[in-house]
Amino acid sequence: MGLLSLLFKNPTAFFLLVPVLLYSVIAHEVAHGWIASLFGDNTAKYSGRLSFNPASHIDPMGMLALFLIGFGWAKPVPVDYRKLSNSRRAIIAVSLAGCITNILIATIALFLLQFDAFRSNRIFVQVLSIAAQINIILGAFNLIPIPPLDGSRVLMEFLPFNAKIKLARLEPYGFFIIIIL
């Protein structure tokens, strides 16, 4: 079920869900670029991708897929892995940055739900609950070790060279594999 059908079934949920989902994905991508810059690669910075402006991150096909089938994507933040200092640790840190950001957002949302000031307001409960759910799903989903997901880059850093090359060759087919699964 896509987001478009939610608009007609439950408009309130739709208008709560869209900004939370959008900024959760943006935070995920910005985290990749920010950590890459800490390790010496400023590609994302120089291409204007360390911004929280949605226009910098929206992939038209990914957005269309999200609204129609409920599964979508943003433009990945560019990272030049050759520019990263301490390459292996940097690649792992950059790869995990988005997932850790999503888990951190979920943790903050769940933490805020522990306070009466937030728990007593139905809108806050809905927004924070949706934020926690979306971010747990985004963080966990991106850890799947299928290219181009973040988990595949982490796995590649622990594989022998030949296995790393074989896994990297799956990247052009990764989205099809994910959709099939």
What is the helix/strand order?
Answer: HHHHHHHHHH
Largest beta sheet, briefly? none
Give the termini separation.
16 Å
Approximate strand percentage: under 5%
| Number of DSSP E strands | 0
Please give a quick description of this structure.
It contains 10 helices and no strands.
Question: Overview of this structure, please?
Answer:
With 181 residues, the chain is mainly α. The protein contains ten helices and no strands. It has helices spanning 3-9, 11-38, 43-46, 60-69, 87-112, 116-119, 122-141, 150-156, 161-168, 174-180. The longest helix is centred in the N-terminal third of the chain and has 28 residues, at 11-38. The radius of gyration is 17 Å and the shape is globular. The two termini are 16 Å apart. The model has no long low-confidence stretch (mean pLDDT 90).
Which structural traits does this protein have?
181 residues, mainly alpha, globular
Topology:
Layout lengths: L2 H7 L1 H28 L4 H4 L13 H10 L17 H26 L3 H4 L2 H20 L8 H7 L4 H8 L5 H7 L1
